[in-house]
Design brief:
Restrct_endonuc-II-like; 4 helices; tt1808, chain A; hydrolase; six-stranded mixed sheet; alpha+beta; 21% helix; four-stranded mixed sheet; Endonuclease, Uma2 family (Restriction endonuclease fold); globular; Nuclease_put_TT1808
């Protein structure tokens, strides 16, 4: 496919996405293609692994499921079929409680919680484009993890369908997960 695709003016759909090499990771945001290669840093992987483990341990015996990237989340607009969707993201972690949204390809519809771990190349997209996207499609909780600063910004979806002001947590804090009030995440475990 080539890394220069993200500069191409053509708009793509999930049907196009399925034809691209599996060794490359891509996202589609409103038809624009973004190459997610190269692989994340070691620190990114460690944080993702810790969060995945903490959520996965909590989910045992519960209906909700947690998935780590690469995991496709297809977010079709009202007028789009699943194959015509112009938005396919691969968040670092997703939690899905409605198992009817899960299929062999990933998730079709909004996850309940999305976690993006920023890097210099994804920071602006995570903070602006994906923030707006996740708010629009009704993701109940959105976390943006800043590995270098060892902070997490947590946004909760309000009754009005907008994300609240962020709650910002530092390494010494613990987060009560908004969608699971009995789950406490100690950030020293995450950032150690």
């Amino acid at each position: 496919m080539g890394k220069n695709l993200k500069y191409n003016q053509r708009l793509f759909t999930y049907q196009d996405y399925l034809t691209w090499p599996e060794v490359e990771r891509w996202e589609l945001l409103n038809g624009k293609a973004y190459n997610m290669t190269p692989a994340p840093s070691r620190k990114h992987q460690e944080i993702s692994g810790q969060l995945h483990t903490l959520f996965n341990n909590y989910m045992k015996g519960k209906q909700c499921r947690v998935y780590a990237a690469p995991f496709e989340v297809r977010l079709p607009q009202v007028h789009e079929t699943a194959d015509q969707t112009s938005t396919v993201v691969q968040p670092d972690l997703v939690l899905v409680c409605d198992t009817n949204k899960l299929d062999d390809r990933g998730c079709l519809g909004s996850p309940d919680l999305v976690i993006e771990i920023t890097s210099p190349s994804t920071f602006q997209k995570d903070l602006k484009e994906k923030f707006n996207l996740y708010e629009k499609v009704g993701v109940r909780e959105y976390w943006i993890v800043h590995p270098e600063e060892k902070t997490i910004s947590v946004f909760q979806l309000t009754k009005e369908g907008k994300f609240s002001r962020p709650e910002v947590y530092i390494e010494e804090d613990s987060i009560v997960v908004g969608i699971f009030q009995d789950l406490l995440i100690d950030l020293q475990d995450v950032f150690s």
